[in-house]
């Protein structure tokens, strides 16, 4: 075992960690919505209003605060009017992804159903507006339908007729998605002009909403630069997104070796640089006050794919300890950069890329990634503090230990991932500017086999183990490839 050290510098506050960093993305793609979150009221799987109870309960347990919907690429061909009114009258449409999986969009989950799901999950919605194939007037009507006070407009009355008298108050609205690709194939300048056009109308419809610009793919800093130059401080912008997916070498979600472990995690660790450089660009355009970064798609994309549906669900992939460590590494970066990252939604919620759940028929299980979100929840709304890990770096510029820490109500929370593929580590934690009060809780998720994953047959193969410690002396064990949470009371 290697002995290492982590300092937490309590007086050095980094900012408040927005709970919205812990959001998820749920698109109408493959098995995310149908047979994912939604099974229908007559299904054998336990459900509330047709939505899986298991998923609702687990989302609440992990305090997932935000759900992005309805896409993704799907958003850019979505007409929100298709998804309201009597279900039997709703049209069946070609989905954005029909070309890949030959599945059609039945529109059984629309605005009212999705809002019901969010309410049951105690999460806020984050809608992506279609600016490729619908007009600013269509989006005005959608905002009107969602947010106008009861009994005021024709849209508010239509919402009431559909069974929902009170407004939903949808606050977060994306203005397009991946507008450099599926969302209109635009240049940053042409998107910026569209942004100005749509944002003006959207803000005017409901000035209380927050608008998020569709940002760059990964490290396309020119996109950010040219977008901000043309937006030129003239339009309403409350956030700017970018997407970062991490690819491995052999693209297989489950079978990987040491080299592939480091390759994928090295790729994920680019998040640090992406945040710094997109933020730096925003600063140079004096946009930092309003253009908080919104990483609204992130996670591992194993192109070798597949989980329980054996390829039926497009982009479905299994999730191992490697994906758990990737989640911890990314969430630690977000915590440490909480003055820059306003919100984030992992892609995607269920039966897809970097999912928190795998489901099919009566089966539904959590993945190791779900456990990481649950293990990190104490950071939400807490004050982040600087940490310094004295730990030998791994290959590919990866830190030996990924770490972040925060304080809320006198409780210190530290989350760490041992990035090392082979070596277990013992860490001495020193809090500078404070001391531990005695009692602590340590939650460890580890497995000797880093390819371990949960299946319908073995749903708890990978799960965290909680240990209560009466007199914590600052020593923490980090098994190789493990994710660990320490919660400890601080002395007054
Ligand atoms: O998450 C799957 C797809 O990846 C999304 O629809 C799109 O935005 C991205 O390219």
Summarize the structure.
The chain is 25% helix and 28% strand. The protein is an alpha/beta fold. Helix 4 crosses helix 5 (154-161).
Descriptive report:
With 492 residues, the protein is α/β, with parallel strands linked by helices. The chain is built from 11 helices and 23 strands. A 9-stranded mixed beta sheet has the order 21-20-23-18-17-16-1-19-22, with helices on one face. The protein is globular and about 65 Å long. The two termini are 34 Å apart. Bound molecules: alpha-L-arabinofuranose. Alpha-L-arabinofuranose binds next to loops.
- Helix segment count? 11
Strand order of the largest sheet: 21-20-23-18-17-16-1-19-22
- Rg from Cα: 22 Å
Bound compounds = alpha-L-arabinofuranose
Walk me through the topology.
Layout: E1 2-16, E2 23-25, E3 47-48, E4 51-52, H1 53-61, E5 66-69, E6 93-94, H2 98-101, E7 104-105, H3 111-121, E8 124-129, H4 136-147, H5 154-161, E9 172-175, H6 188-205, E10 210-217, H7 221-231, E11 239-246, H8 258-268, H9 270-284, E12 292-300, H10 321-336, E13 341-347, E14 357-360, E15 363-366, H11 368-375, E16 383-390, E17 401-408, E18 411-418, E19 425-432, E20 436-445, E21 465-469, E22 475-478, E23 483-490
Parallel strand pairs: 1-19, 2-5, 2-13, 5-8, 8-9, 9-10, 10-11, 11-12, 12-13
Antiparallel strand pairs: 1-16, 3-4, 6-7, 14-15, 16-17, 17-18, 18-23, 19-22, 20-21, 20-23
Helix pairs in contact: 4-5, 4-6, 6-7, 7-9, 8-10, 10-11
The structure holds alpha-L-arabinofuranose.
């Amino acid at each position: 075992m290697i002995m290492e050290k982590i300092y937490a510098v309590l007086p050095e506050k980094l900012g408040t960690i927005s709970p919205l960093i812990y959001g998820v993305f749920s698109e109408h793609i493959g098995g995310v919505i149908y047979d994912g979150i939604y099974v229908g009221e007559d299904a054998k799987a336990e459900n509330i209003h047709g939505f899986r109870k298991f998923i609702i309960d687990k989302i609440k347990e992990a305090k997932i605060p935000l759900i992005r919907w309805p896409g993704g690429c799907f958003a850019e061909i979505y007409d929100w009017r298709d998804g309201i009114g009597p279900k039997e009258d709703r049209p069946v449409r070609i989905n954005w992804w029909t070309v890949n999986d030959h599945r059609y969009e039945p529109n059984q989950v629309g605005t009212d159903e999705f809002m019901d799901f969010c309410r049951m999950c105690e999460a806020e919605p984050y809608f992506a507006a279609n600016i490729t194939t619908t007009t600013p007037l269509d989006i005005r009507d959608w905002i009107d339908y969602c947010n106008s006070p009861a009994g005021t407009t024709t849209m508010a009355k239509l919402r009431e007729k559909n069974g929902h008298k009170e407004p939903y108050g949808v606050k977060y609205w994306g203005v397009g998605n991946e507008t450099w690709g599926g969302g209109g194939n635009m240049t940053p300048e042409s998107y910026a002009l569209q942004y100005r056009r749509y944002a003006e109308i959207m803000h005017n419809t409901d000035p209380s909403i927050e608008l998020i610009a569709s940002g760059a793919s990964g490290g396309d800093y020119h996109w950010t630069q040219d977008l901000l130059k043309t937006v030129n401080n003239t339009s309403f912008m409350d956030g700017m997104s970018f997407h970062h997916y991490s690819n491995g070498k052999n693209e297989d979600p489950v079978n990987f070796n040491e080299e592939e472990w480091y390759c994928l995690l090295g790729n994920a660790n680019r998040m640090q640089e992406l945040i710094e450089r997109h933020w730096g660009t925003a600063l140079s355009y004096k946009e930092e006050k309003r253009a908080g970064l919104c990483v609204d798609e992130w996670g591992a994309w194993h192109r070798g794919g597949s989980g329980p549906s054996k390829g039926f669900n497009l982009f479905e992939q299994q999730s191992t300890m490697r994906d758990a460590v990737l989640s911890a590494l990314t969430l630690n970066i977000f915590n440490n950069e909480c003055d820059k990252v306003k919100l984030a939604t992992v892609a995607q919620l269920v039966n897809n890329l970097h999912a928190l759940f795998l489901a099919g028929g009566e089966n539904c299980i959590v993945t190791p990634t779900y456990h990481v979100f649950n293990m990190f929840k104490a950071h939400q709304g807490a004050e982040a503090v600087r940490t310094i890990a004295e730990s030998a770096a791994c290959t590919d510029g990866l830190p030996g230990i990924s770490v972040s820490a925060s304080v809320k109500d006198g409780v210190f929370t530290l989350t760490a991932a041992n990035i090392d593929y082979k070596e277990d580590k013992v860490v001495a934690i020193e809090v500078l500017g404070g001391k531990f009060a005695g009692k602590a809780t340590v939650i460890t998720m580890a497995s000797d086999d880093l390819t371990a994953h949960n299946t319908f047959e073995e749903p708890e193969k990978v799960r965290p183990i909680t240990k209560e410690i009466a007199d914590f002396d600052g020593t923490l064990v980090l098994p190789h490839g493990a994710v660990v949470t320490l919660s400890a009371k601080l002395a007054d």
